[in-house]
């Protein structure tokens, strides 16, 4: 079909434009510029002389490049003169739009656009950009450059540039010169016209055009080619960066608020040349993120630092296959963004989401309201993800691969350290599988969690007061949420199941990783609890909430950690050789932390560390090398010593297997070699003093000094010491009688003239055992020599007791010991001086004169009954197990002791309801709890309801303490308590104190070392239960005061944790707090003479109690009873 011909008549359609004839160009001829007139002729535009103009532009380009790049230094001055003469001949009036500066070139550019001559338009734009670049390098041509820039910014010329910027994507030869021209205008003379360029943003900063050009990237060219011939994206990037450099605050903010443009700037960052990447990162950091004028415009900076842009920079920093040349610069940029709050994306934060630092005053706890503690706070420990301020960082770190790349791991940890709030939110959304399997992925995740747990606890637990700078303002009113703190201690992937399986793995590496993670977690928990204790002390109105939060954290942490038996099993399965020294040291450290940080969990298992400790002591006795293995062995020994100190199953005086000595003797041998070790000396004193083998620390000094003689101590001596310690620990009563008998001999001989209490005191049992066994070792010179030396050094103390002197005389009376006595008299004082520990340095505090105050008693008044009893219903609002653990059931039991009959009746009904619910529940040990509650109800109904009187507090507090014991089957009083409960369904209240004193003071303990623990438990109960006249009457009728005061003079009472004697005095003090109690003590118990005797022995508290008895007694009654004035008593 032939082409339809154009008909002129009857058709208004214009003819088609003829195809341009300039598609094929000749190569431009370059002429050397000799004078300005020649240059003006070459750049003259004529429509019929396009080729001549192209030749002129090419010649002008060569001319400018010669000036710009100093190609001919000798001729450069002449060339600059020619350029100046040419520019001076051009029109300079900007108001005359018909004759602009360099009008011939602008006319040629306009003609090229009208005729679609893209090559000519590209050449004109390129020569203008080159001219402007040349002028910017010549200070004398500044005015010409400013004139050219303003000419470029004329509206008719910007339309030409905009048309070039909007050219099709494949015509990069048209787009690039326009971008270079705008960049030169923006940067000229330090950006003096940058704001002028920004004002004409419709033509110069069209967002859609810039976004399109930022996507025109070339990926198939080598680095050198990309640097020589930049792509459209590279030129667009430099154009934008020029605006970031030179724009003022307002204009820069307006440009940054374009989110699509900022995203496009970083979109193809991984494909850009290294110099472009470095330029982007440097300009954005120096001129945007660090710009002080933009400090108040965080939202503008956040538009630049979106999670998408951070991911693109991460691709350069860590994910380039061949290693991007700018990887280090990108990593440093990311780390600065994560660590610097002034950059705009980081908000300093801690462990407190917004609005959780203070309690809502509208939800304050009224007097009539039920106190729910932390549960009264709606936001506390919510199951959903906690709210965070750093949402951009949270979104970004979710895309990181901390298990696969060390740099990404460091970036994530930097974010967590700068904003600790991110940890809980991160693991709330991150599904991390940590099932123990020895693979690179598992090792990567374990290393990441290891570094995460190592992060320090934030100051003031992360209470940030400032909005931007994150200033601390001390501790908050409320504690941080437990789940947030727990995620920072043991993140969510480290569940109880996972950690237990890791400990029981056959792979040593997996087990070692798990142990190290747990060690760090326990250490961090210890420091966290110390911070919470400080916050509790400083809190004015929420101490109970801080204490509850600390207890809840410890409970949840214990639930997530492996059981003690699994850790013990791990320790036992590791071979005891040098190859596994590091693993054994780590597990021993973990065992130590279990006993120090979570003692309840540790004591759930009866761990006998005797064998391991004795082997470690024997290894230390042989001498350890100074190598790394030797240092690890020494650390392991230190951990085992602490474990033995806390472990109730430790058998200090028993030989284990084929070992030569018991653990205590092995420890003593080790200490003799390093007798200045304060920690070992302290442990020796605690063990020997607790078992009454030594009475004073000076006796331990004498024991160590006696082993530091000139000659090495033989095995016979060590065996003798071991035997004496074993005998004294097994038969303490026998050796106490021997000590008293020795003291009585001197009294009969008339040597009691000195009434000093220290002189009359009894020494430890070891002295009696040595004196008893010395005659049987008469044929062993080494043993006799040591025994004489020990007693002699002991008698050289500053204050030797009469008993020591008597026993020394008995040993010296032996014929075999007379020769040995002469060898020890001279060096006893020197030996004691050698073993004296240096005094610990004490910081001198300047003396401040304080007003003298009278001494006060260190005891507290008994608790008084509150007018409100929310505990009647509080237990029903919780799970039964939680109610028992939180003490709500204990408070309900004490309601039976209330002075209000209505409260007692309600408590009785609630306890019956509680019994019914317990029987149908799944609570562990529910049968024991039901039996206890049933006996309390039966006792109350049979002995109190008929007479309508309250249950004595002695009975109520006993029930409360019995409930606590039943929750802990490993408690030392647990067996005796169970026997008491099954004895009868009803308690005989008047006989209860006397029964328990007989069951503890006059009976064997259930555990070997629990005698004084049981006695102290009974005394604590008596102190707590003595609150009313009914309680006082029960104790008076049972003769409890007489029996308790007699307990004060027991030889071991002063060393039983140092509190038994104090508790005896506190029982008397509590009696004075009850109406009529002081008179009862004076007339029925005769405590005045007893207190005077105790006070004469050096107990200042007894004197204060005596003063209180006199101040609170009924003077008339006492005067009538004693027939003397009270002041004379």
Automatic annotation (TrEMBL):
Ranges for the URB1 N-terminal domain? 103-445
Which SUPFAM superfamilies does the annotation name? ARM repeat
Q: Where is this region: Disordered?
A: 1-22
Q: URB1 central HEAT repeat domain: which residues? A: 647-821
URB1 C-terminal domain residues are 891-1090
The entry's cellular-component GO terms read:
nucleolus
Protein's GO biological process: maturation of 5.8S rRNA from tricistronic rRNA transcript (SSU-rRNA, 5.8S rRNA, LSU-rRNA); maturation of LSU-rRNA from tricistronic rRNA transcript (SSU-rRNA, 5.8S rRNA, LSU-rRNA)
Q: Which residues form the signal peptide?
A: none
In this entry, which stretches build a coiled coil? none
Q: Which InterPro entries match?
A: ARM-type_fold, HEAT_URB1, URB1, URB1_C, URB1_N
Q: Which protein are we looking at?
A: Nucleolar pre-ribosomal-associated protein 1
The protein's organism comes out as Oleoguttula mirabilis
